[in-house]
Amino acid sequence: VALDITDVRALDGLVRGKFAVLSAAPYHLTTRIAEAAKANSAHYLDLTEDVASTRHVKKLAVDANSAFIPQCGLAPGFITIVAYDLARHFDTLQDVRMRVGALPKYPSNALNYNLTWSTDGVINEYCEPCEAIVNGQLREVPPLEECDEFSLDGVTYEAFNTSGGLGTLCETLAGKVRNLNYRTIRYPGHCAIMKALLNDLRLRDRRDVLKDILENALPATLQDVVIVFVTVSGSKNGRLIQESYANKIYARNMNGHMRSAIQLTTAGGICTVLDLLTQGVLPTKGFIRQEDISLENFLQNRVRSDLRAAGAGMSYSVVEEIAPLLQRLGVRKEWVTSGSLAVHSPLSGECTARVPVTSAADTSAIIDNAHAAFLEWRKVPAPRRGELVRLLGEELRAAKADLGRLVTLEAGKITSEGLGEVQEMIDICDFAVGLSRQLYGLTLATERSDHRMMETWHPLGVVGVITAFNFPVAVWSWNAALAFVCGNSVVWKPSEKTTLTALAVHALLERAIAKFNAIGNRRAGGARRSAHRWPRGRRGAGRSSARASRVRDGLHRDGSPGRSAARDPIRTQPPRARRQQRRDRLPEREPRSGPARHRLCGDGHRRPTLHDTSKTLRARERVRHAGAAIEGGLRIRCCRRSARGPARSSGR
User: Fold this and answer.
1) In terms of C-beta density within 10 A (0-12 exposed, 13-18 middle, 19 or more buried), how is residue 635 classed?
2) pLDDT single digits (tens) 375-389
3) CA dihedral in degrees (612, 614, 617, 623; nearest 10)?
4) pTM for this predicted structure
5) Bridge partners of residue 243, in order along the sequence
6) Among candidates 468, 469, 477, which has minimal Cα distance to 392?
7) Phi, psi of 127 (to 5 degrees)
8) What pLDDT digit, counting tens, does each position of 290-307 carry?
9) Contacts of 169 (CB under 8 A, 6+ apart)
10) Quick one: pLDDT at residue 129?
């Protein structure tokens, strides 16, 4: 229905008889809609962040027969509900800091910003004074000031004062908190440019010009991200405690339509409040503040459930994210569901798993098993032990993203730190693989003749590794990778706060061990098969040469003698032995009479020409005739002299 809101009669006709009015109009039109709702006893809800409009709505609600619930969007709205829910659990409050931003996922201009919601709303919150509580006093602070930077999930943002984000929270917490403020989140550099436009170019006084510039220069986008970040500090049971809520919501395809994150969060907020009103959870008369709404009721509402099922809701469950991570990492379900030790995430305080606790008797049995494994593992050659560590490094590379995210969820590290810790594991595996071929020992001089002393390093045995929660996986790898290549077994006692990451690493190690065993079985099978082949010839015969020699020598495929081999037993011998036996069966050659063309040895063989490359006398003495093998670095060549020219090498 197209309607001119400034037409009071048309607006009354539209509102008459309706249960509720939801206003998504610009902030300067909300008061007219609220007046029409009161005149027709309809409930009123809006999305405005404007302070003056909210104060006018509050006055209208004093004697109204219906409920007036302004500021039902994201900020104020959902962030107000979250902040008050965190604050009410403290004995005394010190600081409440609220940060919200709707940002483009892929910024591409100097402002690092795209239009994701009302241009009028953006300009208004950049220009109007901001409410805050400073040192216990309610004050108005200028917008675009007190800009600070913070990092969330490895991304740097800036936050600065803007108007309207606190809603009515200043009145609610007056006298109860030392500092309360709200700031808008943007990418670094945005605040400085907007200050130049509004203050230096004085576009603060020409908002229509600024609106025209922004709408014609900055394209809108549906690919956005909404960031909600609330921090509350105060005392609990005599201790200074800080609690935080952080969440990112991304654009999502819903029911075949692409919806931006700010659309989902804003529409989800006001629709949830409307549903709570229709169910009788909220009062049906008077002014209702956002902090009067229970966070538990808000998140458990069916509207919020629908958004959460679609993956775009503001409520966030660490358990829902951890479950598929564990499955991809290979952690068995019974490992995290059948124990008595509860594991909690520092991000949300949720119980993420229940793992079994090892008793003293079980620990002794585990150590005994580790010692038995050590007795076998130390017999494996060091390069083969390095192969296992290499396979572990490959598994860590493939699972780096999942394992790094698990470190973030369980230990509370930012994403870059979680990924960096897994990279530390990969690096130490690479180092240990090289070390497996460099386990050198010293050779020591001794006074005894024909005697030498050698130094050999032996494995220690069972290596115990105890790790803390702040380095849940890297410290284990520093010890385990080196222990494995040195021939030791490892028993790991992780922190009770980070048991899931330990189980995930254990599952990855099991995958590496399975591949290691499979490679070992293939090599053993290959060795058994190659044992039946004849030794390779001087030029390195391959499979085709071995197959041809079997045919030539009259052998079957399995190596058994054929008919021709049965007639000549020599054919069943390897080629080199066969040649030697045939030479032995030849009669000795007598020296020729007359002018000799060949200089012969005393045993009838040609005299060799010796090219001694080792220059040692012992090697010369070993050579008895021209058919001798290569020993001591000697290259033996038989020379023959022809009548036509000088001696030539026969090539043998």
Assistant:
1) exposed
2) 999 999 999 999 999
3) -50
4) 0.52
5) 232
6) 477
7) -110, -30
8) 999 998 888 888 776 434
9) 76, 80, 83, 84, 96, 180, 290, 291
10) 92
